[in-house]
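[Automated response] Your request has been received and processed.

Submitted sequence:
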Amino acid sequence: MKVIFFGGGKFAMTALESLREHFDVKLVVTNPEKPVGRKQISVPSAVEIKAKELNLPIRIIEKFDAEVIDELKQIDPEMMVVVDYGKIIPQKVIDIAKKGTINVHPSKLPQYRGASPIQSAIFNGETQTAISIMLIDQEMDHGPILLQQTVEIKQNDTFGSLYSRLAQLYPQLLVKAMQGYLNDKIKPQEQDHSAATFTKLLKKTDGQIDWTQPAEAILNMIRAFDPWPGTFTTWNNRSLKIISAKASEKVLRPGLIEINEQRLFIGTGTKALEILEIQPSGKQKMTAAAFANGNQTINDVNLSTGSLASQS
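Generated structure:
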């Protein structure tokens, strides 16, 4: 069966090997190179790198003009697969595949549609998420579901760890869903749209901590936004990234800092958090003990901005 694959990020590249093993992957469509890092060096997408490794044909597409659409039509694919592509695919492209276009979404649809389903599930304290394999329709993450597999969210899961685990789990489910659908053994199931919830595209500023929130909510935030956008506060107009923390039994006023025998505590709306790792702006991450050794005068937080301030 002829397949066209659309993908961009690391989450997408894990599907390519399984698809190549079971289907005739006629084309891999991915995004142009992007500048990354402080030096803004242009690098190819993770999918482009993996496709080259697997000797799969690649097409870099910036826009779906008439020439591109005609090229895709000439391939005459039975199915198309979209994973972590990062662009809206026009309906006239979706309709090219005779059997439909499939998408992989890392949430228990109809919950957490949109751009940040993994982060949002952790942020909200969920204990489960899922991999959903669905047919694409005209609305975002709205199409009928072919298969859905529930996945546990562990207590120590961060976005990074859960992302990696889901990326390894879904390729086998994707192949199973495609084969079952093509053989009429799997029937698409309409989502309960009345139960839909939505997520947003995260920004760096979403990581700013409000210390008046409960300790559990802040811990979930730290896990959900690790490694990006990260959780942070500021001290003397300098950013301080909170890398990891744990709950404590200590009670402090929200935002109040206490250094006790090289241990660093910050008050929240409930119990204080013990900070384990921290990263001041322009420096490497360090233990809270190392940070406390050099900053014994820190003692309070400006709650109106959530920023750390030294005593005057």
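Summary generated for your ticket: Residues 66 and 230 are 41 Å apart (CA to CA). The first helix runs from residue 10 to 22.
If you did not submit this request, please reply to this message.
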